[in-house]
Each structure stands twice: as structure tokens, then as C-alpha cells.
Amino acid sequence: MPERRPSVAGPASSRFPPTVIVVHPREKRSKCSVEALRGREDFSFFTFPNQVTLPLENFVRLGMGGQELSESDAAAGLLVLDGTWKLAQKMEPFYEDVPIRTLPDIKTAYPRTSKVFQDPIGGLATVEAVYAALRIMKRPLDGLLDHYHWKDTFLEANGWDQV
Questions:
Q1: Is 1 part of a structural domain of the chain?
Q2: Helices (H) and strands (E) in the chain — how many of each?
Q3: Is the pLDDT of residue 127 over 80?
Q4: Using only C-alpha atoms, what is the Rg of the chain?
Q5: Exposed e or buried b per residue across 27-58, where buried means at least 16 C-beta atoms within 10 angstroms of its C-beta
Q6: Range of the domain at 50
Q7: Based on the structure, what is the number of domains in the chain?
């Protein structure tokens, strides 16, 4: 069942399917970079392993090793698995029918240090990945980074205008 809160400010567009974010239950909500997007009409959140109740036939999934995401994916919905890299890998088999799209080289601003394993090259905070994907797909970006602490650093590192 989707986790919904009453609608808050954020662009709702019937032109595009919602961005679906599946959150691993061990992901700490206090550290979750997309937590501020809950309740927006253009996002639907689900907690793994609960089934996504939206049809995913016309969706692409952000991940590593797929075809590069492009503007030609603009009509597709976006599925994002949210958790540590290790937890996200455990969720991937449940969504293997959704085609993978990889982001181009984008610089992260999120300061991470893992004592357990090294993050993959090109690893981004979830909100950074969502922002970059929706930017590529020519979707509205209003308010996506409003609550992201490293917003200015992220936008500057990638040569994007401030929003």
C-alpha cells in the first residue's frame, strides 16, 4: 500500500506518471535524502517488500549498468530504489522486469564515508539521482532540492543553474 500524506506544495502534472520510490525498511528516514518529497502528488512512496500498486509497464528504473537515461525516456515513469547500495542491490531482483537506465557522469555533493565498503563510482544521494533523472527527462524540478542541505554544492558541481 502506498504511503501517502496529504498533498503539499509541489508540481502535480497529469502529463507525467508519478516518480515511484521504493524505500528499504532499514533505510534510516532521518538520513533519507528524499524524505522531504513524501506527500507530493508527483511522487509515490512504497516500503519494500510491499508490492508497488501502480502499473510499472511504462517505467524505467534507475540503476547501474543499463542504457543511459535520455530525453527519449521522457514519457516513461521513473522507479527509484532507495537504500544503501547493499540494500538496493537486494531489492533489484524484485524489479528486474523494469528496464534499467543509468545516469551520465554526475558529481555528488553528498559527503559519505563507509567503513564497510566502497560506494560505486558515480554513486549519488537518492535526491541527487532523482533530480538529475527528472532534469534529463525534461520534467518539472520545482522544489525537488529545497530541503537538500548540499543543494548549492550539487548544482554548482554539475554546472546547473540554481533553482
A1: no
A2: 3, 5
A3: yes
A4: 15
A5: beeeebbbbbbbebebbbbbebeeebeeebee
A6: 19-157
A7: 1
Full-model pTM: 0.84
Cell numbers for 45, please give them.
Answer: 512512496
User: How far is it, in rounded angstroms, from Cα 48 to Cα 20?
Assistant: 12
Identify which has the larger pLDDT, 7 or 148.
148
Q: Cα separation of 55 and 29, whole Å?
A: 26
Identify residue 42 by its one-letter amino acid code: D
Coil/strand/helix, residue 151: helix
Q: Is there a cis peptide before residue 2, judged by omega within 30 degrees of 0?
A: no
Residue at 11 is within a domain? no
Residue 31 within any structural domain of the chain: yes
The percent of residues above 90 in pLDDT, for the chain, comes to 61
Whether 143 and 9 have beta carbons less than 8 Å apart is answered as: yes
Please name the residue ranges forming H helices in the chain: 85-91, 126-136, 151-157
Identify whether 61 is part of a domain.
yes
Q: How confident is the model at residue 140, as a pLDDT?
A: 92
